[in-house]
Fold each of these.
Amino acid sequence: MLRKTTILAAAAVGYVLGARAGRERYEQIVSAAGRVKSDPHVQKAANQAQDYAAQQAPVVKEKAQAAAGKAADKAAEAAATAKDKVQDLVSSDDVPTPDTSVKGAPSGKTPKAHGDPLPGTPENPVQADDA
């Protein structure tokens, strides 16, 4: 019965909001809604629904807390796993060696310098001006 009442109430609200019949029709709908709301059967159903919700609130709270705890545990576990994987990657001694079998591929050796060495290096020291 509660489900039917909810559907009827939703339909009435939708009709009121969408109606274009004018003020007179609106007043009729509001009056009918007031009569339905004051009906003892509707009042009884509303009170039963409210009582049921109040009874179930502690159960729902407990289930929500348990679900939140499980989610937090899984998140912490996933974070720890990710941290371990990153640390393994960062601290790995495996340095990849370049593939030198392809012509023109990098050899992994430091390339030779081209041109004049930079001033201030051992190959080209800066000399003081005699003024």
Amino acid sequence: MELLTLISAAAIAFAILMYVMLDGFDLGVGILFPFAPDDRARSTIMNSVAPIWDGNETWLILGGGGLLVLFPLAYSIALPAFYIPLFTMLLALIFRGVSFEFRHSAHTSIHIWNRAFFGGSLVAAFMQGILVGGVVQGVTVANDRFAGGVFDWFTPFTVLTGLGVVAAYTLLGATWLVMKTQGELADWARRIGVAMGGAMLILLGAISVITPAMHPEIADRWFAGLNPLYVLPVPLLAVLLAAALFYGLLSGKERLPFFCALGLFICAFAGFGISMYPNLLPPSVTIFNAIAPRSSVVFSLIGIAISMPMVLFYTVYAYSVFRGKVGTEGGYAHHD
């Protein structure tokens, strides 16, 4: 059963990582949207994510649905603990999706949908950061039920993690636009990327200092005994990726900044996993005491083994088809 538990946790972690990376950049694009140089640039920005934005959110369904069926105890505790940020995030994503579709056919109300696209993207990103911070700081549990207050999730630390996720998604969005657009818009995105890269590193550094200070067991995981030797590759790789990110942005590279930003997300996710394992909801809910009965786990993993490769296939296919630069009049200019 231990092996099945680890496989289940790995499947959910992979789905969440895919969602964070893929939907992260199009949420970042939405945050940047109203600050674009002009209306033509805004249309180009919208076109850059039009073919793939809704497919990116499939990974959120896989991650959330997987948590429900594989770790029902954690789900039953997390839902009441994070009702407000969870439903605010979902409403923001819905509002953002509606505004995306309505904007294309709106005339007199287009400014409303522009603001809705920005607002939905910003609120969804911030709430996701709040959720990350809320999980890290821990949840009050008694008798396998949430026993805390309605606003336990709202603290200075969670606000900090919310701002960190907003900065990180905005960086991803900027590097996406560097890769997918041309001319003045790409130059503008490059400048934004440098600024947001600096902001993200400052906020990530602050979170990395505060987290072990809040939880001695996390500090031990990183600094006790020989542990630093095992975990050192993660921060070292992050430093190298950050250097490559700024090199790519400042030297005019098109693809390097985006993939370095994705690499930073993977490093941050790995650091989160190192800090949290085996906890799902600190301090008492772990992957081992929250796992569903064996029969449910086996049945669910069979479904995941069928569905996840299908989602991976159409994700890769969609990005392959729309891999070129975005044309200023809509569509894709080329596939090189």
Amino acid sequence: MNVATRGVTPGKTRTCPHCKAAILETLSICPGCLHHLRFDQEAAKRQVAATSALRVEGIIRHPPLEEAWEYFVVIAVRNDRGEEVTRQVVSVGALQGTEKRTFTLSVEVMPPQSAAAPKPAPANGTKR
């Protein structure tokens, strides 16, 4: 039984077996490591139909002749009441003279999962 044939709660998560990230149960490709998780044509079509609701990109350049800078990247998500739902440090590092880093944040949204139609019974009356 694949995910498309059983009821799935929107937002339900599981762990990617490759990178161990928490991902949506309905995904067939991990958005973190891009490994394929299962063959499910409906889930793949739905994931391809995802659109970018938000994309922000920025570059930090370290000025020459200054001491190294340390950095940390924090992502926080808040609900409609302004309450913090999650907060994670996703990367840390250092910039030496004349180095640069590009940071990109994107939020993808997908159409709702449609319920799969039940398979028709065989014409000869035998059970599967």
